[in-house]
């Protein structure tokens, strides 16, 4: 690998990109040196993804210059960007699951030439994978590999062309938590081998762990540059600016005290008794009170998702019972769960929650069509009027209630889902990973909404893989191998949430 | 992404007092797919009037309407399934089955009402089987209805015993072949079917549920909608409408035959996609579908008037369908516009010393950049783009 030790591997100066009505990037400068990991942090809408799009060749800047290893480069396609030495790895992998590892790694080479020297390619593919610490059989389909290995295939695909700069756009979001450490180690190793890395992640602990320098974007400008790694709270402060004061999200980032609930009453809404699917979930019992938020946490596959699925009728329950408001309920389908007074905000709001090409108001009323029906017909006016009040109450940002949710930002999409259950008057809301993939500011907003929901007399169950998020709840249940291994109130855990961590296995 | 067609037609006059609320209640005015569809419709009509002086005569327009009415009803049947992400390849065969059942019953001396009811029930049952196969046996709609295509035509052949059965019941013939106030009854039936379907899709919870189910089945299920029941309902409705189309055919041809309606499944799909409905489900509306059927019908008529032989007609028809879909799916115009901008930009850059263009209008104005950071994928990695209708 040729490394120019003197200059930066990537230098960007005065990068500007304007869209009609918005300046997405406003004269951004940045530098990445070979052997360094640069973190690019910023809230949603700060300009990160525009920068990624430009550096990956998907879009062209309106002004500004880019140098790779001291040579100014221009490119107008992803292919050209790669040829210039900048390789981007996206959050969602661009692999063909049915094709083999070697075919995936050399996919773009298949575009040229007629004959493929399979033996040689296989050898090279294996060498690349070995270098990444994963000597897998390169002839098996990529889809049969675990997610973390698939990502290594993606990285091998990048390394094949000896990039000067590797841009990783939220590579850890889709990974199971136990594999994140390995990826971060690999990033360090790649840096040592002379590549300049740009790392984008919402998880600040990862940023502080792996990066050498940190740049923070806000409103299209670079507002801060740290030559040494700052504390997570400093990064958050720069990301959100003056909105930082008293922020719960910041509290979660620092692992400090902070409280999501605090309005619990003595009135039990949901009583779960010995609920089990006879398989992955051992009998679980708990009570939930009006105004209370219960955090359920555990490692991936510890049973927290199964518990949520059992409650909402998505998974067959073989034993146990639930009682809502003193009435025994049988929940065998989402329909019955909703009728009983439950609501679910699924983990993946786009693929499981929203009808993206429907308007906001139709998404809001989707679970309560009956109450917007008069003599068998939908009352459009009533629907729109109702949606308008929800938009106002939750301060959903949209051009109109008829805007398709596809074009709304992640935080606002989440709010539309919440509005759906507020409309349905759900008594208990189950939120699966409510803040995954959203930035600090949107996180704060979501916490605010949960709190508002609790104040209004609702009760919530937050299923989360982040201990610090669970610790914000009134009560926390820790699951491991489908069993409840620890239970604590907010007061007991807030000061010492390390104790909770010891139960996670 | 432009406003989906069923929305574009809505124009609610809201009487909300507060000003910001009013602003957000208003729809932006944009030319949706329906606008382009109407444009194509008019364009084809203009071409027709230039092609032959006979085109704009009452007699010819009636011919077009009568010929298109069967395809229109089948198109509506197809639409109702396509909107749920399905496809119904059996509509043509089921229509043929309907003609045969009607002919047999009439020959046995049954009345028109009994005949119509039994034929429609039998065809609904065929649709019900389709629905069960798709929803409960989890067979892909394409495969399940392909099997039904074969089965229904086979059953029709077995029932008719022989080549065809002539229908001589005058009541039946005058109902499906007659006129009411100078308008052919089949045209009236098609109009009623279209309007009822459009009404159901827009104003009833069932219609809303079908759109939601097609747009995102998982979201519909997690919102507590009866997804399976609705999906079966869509196939049953499709079967019933195919049966109705069969009765219309039987009335026009005065016969029941297992050989009629061949290729109608493809005509109905063509009408649906020309009408701007995405085969990925969740979009479109019945009226656009019928406009699609009319456009295809007019093109056939114009080519007949121009004396074009039937083989080149097929080629032209295929090309026109492609062009119409390219325009009505909404992506076409934007893509052309973007390409022009890009070319112009490249031309500017070629001039040395010329200033860089300020704002790149290449991005469609409706797309708000960077607000959905982290979720929005760049075009290069957006395999699930629903912009283009296949």
Account of the protein in words:
The complex is a heterodimer of chains A (505) and B (390). By secondary structure, chain A is an alpha/beta fold. Chain A has three domains: 10-245, Rossmann fold, CATH 3.40.50; 246-341 and 427-505, Rossmann fold (3-Layer(aba) Sandwich), CATH 3.40.50; 353-425, no CATH class. Chain A is built from 19 helices and 22 strands. Chain A has a six-stranded mixed β-sheet with strand order 6-7-8-3-9-10, sandwiched between helices. Chain A has a six-stranded mixed β-sheet with strand order 16-19-20-13-21-22, sandwiched between helices. In chain A, strand 4 and strand 5 form a beta hairpin. In chain A, helix 8 packs antiparallel against helix 9 and helix 15 (410-424) runs parallel beside helix 16 (440-455). The mean pLDDT of chain A is 83. Chain B is mostly helical. Chain B has a single domain (32-331), classed as ABC transporter involved in vitamin B12 uptake, BtuC, CATH 1.10.3470. In chain B, 66% of the residues lie in helices and 3% in strands. Chain B contains 16 helices and four strands. In chain B, strands 1-4 form a two-stranded antiparallel ribbon.
Defining traits:
heterodimer, A: 505 residues, alpha/beta, Rossmann fold, 3 domains, 6-stranded mixed beta sheet, 19 helices, 22 strands, 34% helix, 24% strand, B: 390 residues, mainly alpha, ABC transporter involved in vitamin B12 uptake, BtuC, two-stranded antiparallel sheet, disordered N terminus
Short structural summary:
The complex is a heterodimer of chains A (505) and B (390). By secondary structure, chain A is an alpha/beta fold.
């Amino acid at each position: 690998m040729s490394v120019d030790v003197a200059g930066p591997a990537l230098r960007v100066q005065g990068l500007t990109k304007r869209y009609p009505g918005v300046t997405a990037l406003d004269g951004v400068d940045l530098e990445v040196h070979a052997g360094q990991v640069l973190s690019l942090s910023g809230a949603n809408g700060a300009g990160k993804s525009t920068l990624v799009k430009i550096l990956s060749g998907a879009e062209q800047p309106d002004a500004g210059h880019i140098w790779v290893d001291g040579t100014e480069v221009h490119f107008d396609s992803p292919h050209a960007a790669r040829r210039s030495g900048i390789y981007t790895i996206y959050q969602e992998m661009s692999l063909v699951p049915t094709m083999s590892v070697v075919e995936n790694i050399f996919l773009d080479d298949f575009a040229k030439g007629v004959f493929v020297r399979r033996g040689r390619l296989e050898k090279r593919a294996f060498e690349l994978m070995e270098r990444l610490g994963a000597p897998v059989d390169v002839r098996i389909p990529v889809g049969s590999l675990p997610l973390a290995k698939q990502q290594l295939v993606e990285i091998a695909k990048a390394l094949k062309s000896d990039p000067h700069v590797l841009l990783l756009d939220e590579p850890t979001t889709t990974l199971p938590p136990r594999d994140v450490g390995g990826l971060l180690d690999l990033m360090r190793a790649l840096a040592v081998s002379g590549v300049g890395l740009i790392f984008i992640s919402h998880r600040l602990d990862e940023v502080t762990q792996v990066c050498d320098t940190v740049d923070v974007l806000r409103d299209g400008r670079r507002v801060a540059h740290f030559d040494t790694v700052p504390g997570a709270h400093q990064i958050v402060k720069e990301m959100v600016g003056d909105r930082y004061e008293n922020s719960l999200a910041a509290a979660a980032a620092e692992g400090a005290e902070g409280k999501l609930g605090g309005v619990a009453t003595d009135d039990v809404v949901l009583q779960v008794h010995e609920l089990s699917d006879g398989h992955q979930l051992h009998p679980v019992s708990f009570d939930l009170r009006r105004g209370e938020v219960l955090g359920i946490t555990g490692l991936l596959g510890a049973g927290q998702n199964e518990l949520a699925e059992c409650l909402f009728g998505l998974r067959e329950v073989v034993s146990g019972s639930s009682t809502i408001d003193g009435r025994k309920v049988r929940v065998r389908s989402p329909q019955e769960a909703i009728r009983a007074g439950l609501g679910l905000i699924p983990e993946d709001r786009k693929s499981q929650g929203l009808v993206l090409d429907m308007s906001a108001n139709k998404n809001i009323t989707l679970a309560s069509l009956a109450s917007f029906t008069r003599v068998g017909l939908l009352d459009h006016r009533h629907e729109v009027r109702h949606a308008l009040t929800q938009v106002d109450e939750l301060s959903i940002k949209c051009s109109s209630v008829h805007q398709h949710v596809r074009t709304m930002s992640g935080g606002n999409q989440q709010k539309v889902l919440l509005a759906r259950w507020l409309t349905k008057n759900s008594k208990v809301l189950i939120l699966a990973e409510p803040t995954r993939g959203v930035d600090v500011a949107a996180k704060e907003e979501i916490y605010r909404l949960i709190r508002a929901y609790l104040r209004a007399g609702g009760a919530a169950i937050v299923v989360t893989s982040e201990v610090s998020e669970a610790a914000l709840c009134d009560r926390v249940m820790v699951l491991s191998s489908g069993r409840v291994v620890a239970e604590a109130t907010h007061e007991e855990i807030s000061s010492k949430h390390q104790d909770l961590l010891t139960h996670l296995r | 992404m432009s406003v989906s067609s069923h929305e574009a037609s809505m124009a609610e006059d809201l009487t909300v007092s507060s000003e910001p609320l009013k602003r957000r209640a208003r729809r932006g005015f944009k030319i949706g797919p329906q606008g382009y569809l109407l444009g194509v419709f008019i364009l084809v009509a203009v071409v027709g009037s230039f092609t032959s002086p006979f085109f704009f005569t009452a007699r010819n327009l009636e011919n077009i309407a009568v010929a298109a009415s069967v395809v229109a009803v089948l198109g509506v049947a197809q639409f109702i399934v396509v909107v749920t992400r399905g496809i119904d390849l059996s509509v043509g065969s089921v229509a043929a089955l309907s003609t045969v059942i009607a002919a047999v019953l009439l020959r046995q001396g049954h009345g028109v009402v009994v005949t119509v009811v039994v034929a429609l029930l039998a065809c609904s049952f065929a649709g019900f089987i389709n629905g069960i196969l798709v929803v409960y046996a989890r067979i892909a709609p394409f495969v399940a209805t392909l099997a039904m295509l074969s089965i229904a035509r086979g059953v029709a052949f077995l029932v008719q015993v022989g080549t065809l059965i002539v229908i001589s019941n005058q009541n039946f013939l005058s109902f499906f072949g007659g006129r009411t106030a100078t308008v052919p009854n089949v045209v009236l039936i098609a109009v009623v079917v279209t309007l009822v379907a459009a009404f159901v899709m827009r104003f009833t919870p069932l219609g809303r549920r079908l759109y939601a189910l097609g747009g995102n089945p998982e979201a519909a299920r997690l919102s507590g909608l009866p997804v399976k029941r609705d999906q079966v309902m869509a196939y049953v409705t499709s079967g019933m409408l195919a049966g109705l189309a069969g009765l219309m055919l039987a009335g026009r041809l005065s016969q029941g035959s297992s050989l009629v309606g061949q290729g109608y499944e493809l005509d109905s799909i063509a009408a649906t996609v020309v009408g701007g409905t995405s085969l990925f489900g969740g979009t479109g509306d019945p009226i656009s579908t019928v406009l699609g059927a009319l456009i295809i019908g007019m093109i056939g008529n114009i080519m007949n008037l121009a004396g074009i032989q039937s083989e080149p007609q097929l080629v032209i028809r295929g090309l026109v369908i492609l062009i119409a879909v390219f325009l009505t799916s909404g992506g076409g115009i934007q893509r052309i516009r973007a390409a022009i901008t890009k070319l112009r930009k490249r031309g500017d850059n070629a001039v040395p010393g010329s200033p860089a263009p300020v704002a790149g209008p290449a991005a469609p104005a409706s797309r708000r950049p960077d607000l959905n950071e982290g979720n929005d994928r760049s075009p290069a990695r957006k395999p699930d783009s629903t912009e283009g209708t296949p």
